[in-house]
TrEMBL record:
<feature type="domain" description="Glycosyltransferase 2-like">
    <location>
        <begin position="103"/>
        <end position="264"/>
    </location>
</feature>
<dbReference type="InterPro" id="IPR029044">
    <property type="entry name" value="Nucleotide-diphossugar_trans"/>
</dbReference>
<dbReference type="InterPro" id="IPR001173">
    <property type="entry name" value="Glyco_trans_2-like"/>
</dbReference>
<protein>
    <submittedName>
        <fullName>Glycosyltransferase</fullName>
    </submittedName>
</protein>
<dbReference type="Pfam" id="PF00535">
    <property type="entry name" value="Glycos_transf_2"/>
</dbReference>
<dbReference type="InterPro" id="IPR050834">
    <property type="entry name" value="Glycosyltransf_2"/>
</dbReference>
<keyword id="KW-0808">Transferase</keyword>
<dbReference type="Pfam" id="PF13641">
    <property type="entry name" value="Glyco_tranf_2_3"/>
</dbReference>
<dbReference type="GO" id="GO:0016740">
    <property type="term" value="F:transferase activity"/>
</dbReference>
């Protein structure tokens, strides 16, 4: 007998996904809806995790991926984390020049025996042998087997350090006690119900030796019964490179985290008990502020166990974790001298939105470009006036003659005359208009794109004002509610080297790891709508007229390098494109010029994870 929820999902999927009743056989009607959806989507298991955490439109996308053979096979997912014995033995034979000793920090509390056995085995199976496992046990008397088992293991392997705590003081104080056992020069954090990949310490040692990293984080994957049964691509947490703005939005770094002893000693206390539940988030925020070299290893090196009491399974089990994370982000703002109001996003408790306080409201010049027909310009200016709750701005346009019958009392219109007897490309037109603009900040806006929420300028300028932010871009939708722009990464195996993140996803989707719901770092901001300081434009000598078709990409990369900062995408500034296709196919000559100039940067880009596209996640 189908439950009410299953009946609802059955009806919803048929209506939303466009499945025809006549195509459903009688035998299908008799199935439970769970089984029906499982077969139709082609999944090995219809997992409510996907629906619960990513929404029904992500289920639809997963179905479409399978339909078009984009869904990863079990074999491909296995390749992400399972190595054969030959490769593991090869790692065991490697000798490192640096003497790196890892102290694995694991506080214990009433750990189920099965979990404890598997945890210690995962450490013993490390291909890098110079480690110690530091266990501080706060278990109660009813779980005395924890101490008995650990003492037995300690007697057989002197790399295992065990200390029974007098009483359970909570996760933060227990972890601090655990650290007192450590004698290594690098510390790795391992939860008592999780597992390390056998190559974890080996891969971390490699980047320490090669890059001198003092803070390292890796990818992870959730599992239930065992690591060999993982068949859901959404269980993999494949992360981008480091960004403090991403980290303020949510603790995407999570597991595995490794840091140097020297970095730890720069803090008066490691874990702060007032942040219990989100002590990791608070710690990572503080550590990354002081780290000299942060490195992300884009490999799955940590197994996060899902069970009924884990945070990954049910946030309500530890609701205080959300409150603690909220305060951890606020504490970082205070340390950095920033002011802002923090709130949760509507969809997720653990995604944070910051409205930074501005001590001034800078003058902004909106520089229009594109189709300058009177009708088009009148429409976009009307939209700007209607949807802009920001008083200090002007609109600049660059044409041969002033527009007819286009005049607004609400906003100054600045006409920049262009000589049509001389051929001008995009960069030259933009530079001429910007040179005569009065604003401290410039918004380059295509006339086919218009704002749809009143605070779009505030949401962008509060980031553009920051010293370490070069260019800011908004969320842009098409009029049929598909994503037009949600950030662009560089990808070497793409023809034009541009990877449009979440392109053509529905507005109803939240994106992989909810990436459509929070502020994050991006590589390229589209010229359809970008904001930057006029000072940066001036320092760069404007847009490069030689970088045809890549004017915006080139500007963004040069701007980032100039200030040694980042470009930002914000989902809280929303615009819409009336043009059905925002981007044009690049010519081979333009691609060649771009690659020649930026090949090294393209290869090293870490905005997108190398496997996102392969797995059909983004």
């Amino acid at each position: 007998m189908a439950s009410l929820f299953e009946f609802y999902m059955y009806t919803y999927v048929i209506v939303e996904f466009g499945w025809s009743i006549k195509n459903i056989k009688r035998r299908d009607m008799k199935m439970s809806v769970k089984k029906y959806i499982k077969e139709q989507i082609g999944a090995r298991r219809f997992d409510l995790h996907l629906l619960k955490n990513y929404g029904v439109y992500s289920v639809k996308k997963n179905w479409e991926n399978r339909r078009y053979h984009k869904c990863p096979s079990k074999e491909l997912m296995d390749e992400l984390h399972i190595l054969d014995e030959q490769e593991l033995n090869k790692q065991r034979s490697v000798n490192f020049n640096k003497k790196i000793k890892f102290s694995i920090i694991t506080p214990l509390y009433n750990t189920p025996k099965k979990f404890l056995i598997e945890l210690i085995e995962s450490v013993e199976n490390q291909t890098y042998a110079n480690w110690e496992l530091c266990l501080a046990d706060g278990s109660d008397k009813e779980h005395s087997y924890v101490g008995e088992f650990c003492k037995k293991k300690m007697s057989n392997d002197d790399r295992i350090q065990y200390h029974a705590l007098e009483k359970n003081e909570g996760i933060s104080d227990n972890t601090n006690e655990c650290i007192k056992l450590a004698t290594g020069n690098y510390y790795a954090l391992l939860d008592h119900d999780d597992l390390l990949h056998p190559s974890a310490l080996y891969e971390v040692a490699k980047v320490i030796e090669a890059k001198g990293a003092d803070f390292i984080y890796t990818d992870e994957v959730k599992f239930r019964k065992n690591i060999y049964s993982i068949d859901n691509p959404y269980y993999f947490n494949l992360k981008p490179g480091f960004s403090k703005y991403d980290l303020r939005s949510h603790n995407y770094i999570c597991h595995l985290t490794v840091f140097s002893k020297q970095l730890l000693e720069s803090e008066p206390v490691f874990y702060r008990h007032e942040f219990d539940g989100s002590q990791d988030h608070d710690m990572v925020l503080r550590m990354t502020e002081k780290a000299k070299k942060i490195v992300h290893i884009p490999k799955v090196l940590y197994y996060w166990r899902i069970h009924e009491n884990s945070v990954s399974m049910n946030l309500k089990v530890k609701s205080y974790a959300v409150d603690s994370a909220f305060r951890a982000v606020q504490a970082q703002l205070e340390r950095s001298g920033e002011k802002g109001k923090i709130s949760n996003t509507k969809s997720f408790q653990t995604l944070y939105r910051i409205r930074y306080e501005m001590d001034k409201f800078p003058f902004i010049s909106i520089v229009l470009h594109g189709d300058f027909s009177d009708k088009n310009v009148k429409r976009v200016i009307e939209k700007i006036v209607e949807q802009t709750d920001y008083s200090r701005y002007e609109v600049v346009y660059c044409t041969e003659k002033p527009l007819r019958d286009v005049e607004y009392k609400e906003v100054p219109l600045i006409h920049v005359k262009i000589d049509r007897t001389i051929e001008h490309n995009n960069a030259q037109k933009w530079n001429q208009a910007i040179s005569e603009a009065s604003g401290e900040h410039i918004v380059l806006l295509d006339t086919d794109v218009y704002p749809t929420n009143k605070y779009w300028l505030q949401e962008m300028v509060m980031y553009s004002m920051k010293k370490d932010v070069a260019v800011v871009g908004p969320k842009i939708l098409y009029e049929d509610d598909r994503i037009a722009y949600a950030g662009i990464a560089l990808k070497d195996d793409y023809p034009d080297k541009l990877y449009y993140l979440c392109g053509h996803d529905s507005i109803r989707e939240i994106g992989y790891e909810a990436m459509l719901l929070h502020v994050r770092r991006t590589g390229i901001v589209t010229s359809a709508c970008m904001m930057f300081k006029k000072e940066i434009w001036h320092d760069l000598g404007g847009f490069d007229a030689q970088m045809l078709e890549y004017e915006d990409a080139d500007f963004c990369l040069r701007a980032m390098n100039n200030i040694k900062g980042v470009n930002i995408w914000t989902c809280f500034a929303k615009l819409c494109s009336k043009r059905e296709k925002l981007y044009q196919i690049k010519s081979s000559n333009a691609i060649s010029s771009f690659v020649k100039k930026y090949q090294r940067i393209i290869e090293q880009d870490d905005i997108a994870h190398p496997e996102w596209d392969e797995l059909g996640l983004v």
